[in-house]
Input
Amino acid sequence: GNSVTQMEGPVTLSEEAFLTINCTYTATGYPSLFWYVQYPGEGLQLLLKATKADDKGSNKGFEATYRKETTSFHLEKGSVQVSDSAVYFCALNPQGGSEKLVFGKGTKLTVNP
Amino acid sequence: GAVVSQHPSRVICKSGTSVKIECRSLDFQATTMFWYRQFPKQSLMLMATSNEGSKATYEQGVEKDKFLINHASLTLSTLTVTSAHPEDSSFYICSAHQGSGQPQHFGDGTRLSIL
Output
């Protein structure tokens, strides 16, 4: 079946630190991969996406590369800010599926000044 | 960009009340919308897929008579929690996508509290 495994949090960093949140997946075929961010009390916002192997998604300083050989889509940012504090969800959309998203459990990030 | 509006953002009501939550795609048409439930500090659980002009498809374990879904137009889906009880208290989130292969866009969620 399809599944997403995400690095367990919470993650606490100081401002300007380097961030990595690991995400690996299991899927048949060639899924699309996404990172969503959820700020407190809000819904989810699409952060970035990649639709095929070796694609790199990027937005707001965040990056993730679709690695088919390691079935991974790790999220990285070179220098985090306090405003990046949120919960981050890795998700996949199975190829040819019904467009249902399969989510990881989420990783809470806290960035301290 | 694509915007999904969800209303109300917060509801507090007595046990036994039925509560309707609306999900609208503001600048695109959505033949399919999704309804999720999120428990504190947990991931999103897909409840059902809302299909315009046809019956919703519910995930295993979700009571269709408890959570009524209506997708009357290409821009509006509603979720009605019937005869709500305290255990139905949760954060409900809807989403919609612009087409096959496109990312889903989420509403801001509805915090439902049943007293």
Summary: Residues 12 and 113 of chain B are 5 Å apart (CA to CA). The interface with chain A takes residues 4, 6, 32, 34, 41-44, 46, 49, 93, 95, 97, 100-101, 103-109, 111 of chain B (CB under 8 Å).
